[in-house]
Every structure is written in structure tokens, then in C-alpha cells.
Design brief:
The chain has 13 helices and twelve strands. It has two domains: 5-193, NAD(P)-binding Rossmann-like Domain (Rossmann fold, 3-Layer(aba) Sandwich), CATH 3.40.50; 197-282, N-(1-d-carboxylethyl)-l-norvaline Dehydrogenase, domain 2, CATH 1.10.1040.10. Helix 1 (14-29) links the parallel strand 1 and strand 2. Helix 8 (195-218) runs parallel beside helix 10 (257-269). By secondary structure, the protein is α/β, with parallel strands linked by helices.
């Protein structure tokens, strides 16, 4: 019988803690997984106590997911290498801007046969243009990656409200195992092979959501907003057919949670929508509206400077 797979969650914010509830509960009940799930926590002090100490004694991330108990088998670890070195499955759920430094720290310190799954929405901007986050991780760590994207608002997932999500696998044999790790009665998982399409949906929907926010801020009404969302979805499909070159791009993938469902959720309740609205109303993108995720300097950068996803048609002009 194969040894149980050890799981490590890289990240402990709002979404990381919500997914830790699911992963911890599933690992405790499934013999395919080691009972202890390690979660790397960037150490902070909360009310005079270390956050890892609070999580490991009170089983609650009081800063990023207050009011929700984590399974007792989720172990908060402040040292990244210590948390990840023995893991067979690495679950990446950190802000996209930190992925490079995190992977550099992990490089050479993890199992060569480990597999990863990224829950990080966005793209990485570097000297060579834009890259998918999963590609950055795979290049830096040399592990096979999958991705999980969908209409998954963290607090609603933590509240165990019904939702769906999509896993895209570069290696389709990893799909069933990752589905067992992630799926619950209220968090339903669909596995597809178009991993790059699944991931690019998680980035492009934010751009459309800003446009939806413009509609709200300018008072254009629901009809116009619906048109923006529909046209945005069509452009997402067109974009994927140009830039996602790993295989054929099926329109059906956009009907999964990673596509139209996530787009709708973000265009009506996401931070990027609120940022677009506030920009139109007073000319500013408030941190309270966008929580730092859609500041003008960052949103404008990859959207207008870099046009490359390793595709010759998208290289910058000489």
C-alpha cells in the first residue's frame, strides 16, 4: 500500500485559511493523505501573540479568517522550508506578487517528485513579458503543476455555502487525487485538462470586472453592464485561443466555474469591480475598495506594457 501523501498549504490568508478547512477535513478522513496538513504562515504578532501559536492552540486564524475554526490536524508552521520539505502535494495560495521569492526559498528544499496546485489568480510580470503563475512555479521548482479556479469567495467557502470550482491538470493522472483532496459536499470540483485556459480565466475576469465597475460608477445601468460582461467573456475566449497553445481551446471550459461563473461573481461582488466604480465616482482607486489588488500603477502595468504570454504575436514592438 502506498504511503499517505503529505500535504502542505503555502499561504494562510483569507483564501488559504478557507481552503485549509477543506483540505484538513478531507485529509483527516481519507487514508490516501497524511493526517497532518502543514500550513506555512508568515509569522505576525496579533494582540501580543504569535499568529502560529494562536492557530495551533485555538485552531482559528483570528486575523484573516476570524470566526471559523480550522481542523485540529492543520499545523501552522512559520518556517517555509520546514513546512514544505517533506510534502508530496504543495497547495499554493499566496498573493501573486510574492510567488517568485517564495519559490526561490523553496528551490532545492522540496521533494523532486512532489506535485503542486496553484489557487493564485493573476499573472506574473517579468522581463520577458507575462507568465502564468503555474509556469513560474514549475520553472523555479521543477514540479508538475495543476490549477484551481472558480467562483469561490473565501468567506462563503468557509461558511460551507454551496459553490463549484474547476481544477485544470497538466498531467491528467493527478486530477482524481486532487479532486479527492479538495471536494466536499458543498465545494464541488470539476476536473479538465485545459489547465492554461482555467488559469488565464482567473486573470482575465479581473479586467472585465473593472469594466463592469466603470458601468456602475457611471450609472450606465444593468443592460450595459450585461453587455460588457458578455463581450468580455467573448474576448476572454478569443484571447485564450491565441495565447493558450498547450492544446485545443474548447468553449465548454468557459462554461465551467472557472469561466462564466467566476466572471459573474467578480463583476457583481469582486474587489476589481469596486475599484472600477470608485475610480469613476471620485477619480481614485481606494485601498478599501480594491484592498491593494487593483491599484492604478499595478493594474495599468501588465495591461498596457506587457503583451506577451510567450507567444510570437504578442511580443513588444522593437
Amino acid at each position: 500500500m502506498a504511503a499517505p501523501k503529505k500535504v502542505c498549504i503555502i499561504g494562510s490568508g483569507n483564501w488559504g485559511s478557507a481552503i485549509a478547512k477543506i483540505v484538513g477535513a478531507n485529509a483527516a478522513q481519507n487514508s490516501k493523505f497524511d493526517k497532518t496538513v502543514k500550513m506555512w504562515v508568515f509569522e505576525e504578532t496579533v494582540n501580543g501573540r504569535k499568529l502560529t501559536e494562536i492557530i495551533n492552540t485555538e485552531h482559528e486564524n483570528v486575523k484573516y479568517l476570524p470566526g471559523h475554526k480550522l481542523p485540529t490536524n492543520v499545523l501552522a508552521v512559520p518556517d517555509l522550508v520546514e513546512a514544505s520539505k517533506d510534502a508530496d502535494i504543495l497547495v499554493f495560495v499566496i498573493p501573486h506578487q510574492f510567488i517568485g521569492k517564495v519559490c526561490d526559498t523553496m528551490s532545492g528544499n522540496i521533494k523532486k517528485e512532489a506535485i503542486g496546485i496553484s489557487l493564485i489568480k493573476g499573472v506574473d510580470e517579468g522581463p520577458d513579458g507575462l507568465k502564468l503563475i503555474s509556469d513560474v512555479i514549475q520553472e523555479k521548482l521543477g514540479i508538475t503543476m495543476s490549477v484551481l479556479m472558480g467562483a469561490n469567495i473565501a468567506n462563503e467557502v468557509a461558511d460551507e455555502k454551496f459553490c463549484e470550482t474547476t481544477i485544470g491538470c497538466k498531467n491528467k493522472s493527478h486530477g482524481p487525487l486532487l479532486k479527492e483532496l479538495m471536494q466536499t459536499i458543498n465545494f464541488r470540483v470539476t476536473v479538465v485538462e485545459e489547465y492554461d485556459v482555467v488559469e488565464i480565466c482567473g486573470a482575465l475576469k479581473n479586467i472585465v470586472a473593472v469594466g463592469a465597475g466603470f458601468c456602475d460608477g457611471l450609472g450606465f445601468g444593468d443592460n450595459t453592464k450585461a453587455a460588457v460582461i458578455r463581450l468580455g467573456l467573448m474576448e476572454m475566449i478569443a484571447f485564450a485561443r491565441i495565447f493558450c497553445t498547450a492544446g485545443p481551446v474548447s468553449s465548454a471550459t468557459f462554461l465551467e466555474s472557472c469561466g462564466v461563473a467566476d466572471l459573474i461573481t467578480t463583476c457583481y461582488g469582486g474587489r476589481n469591480r469596486r475599484s472600477g466604480q470608485s475610480f469613476c465616482e471620485d477619480g481614485e482607486v481606494h485601498r478599501g475598495a480594491g484592498e491593494g489588488d487593483a491599484r492604478r500603477s499595478e493594474a495599468a502595468g501588465p495591461c498596457h506594457r506587457g503583451r506577451s504570454l510567450s507567444h510570437p504575436q504578442a511580443q513588444k514592438p522593437n
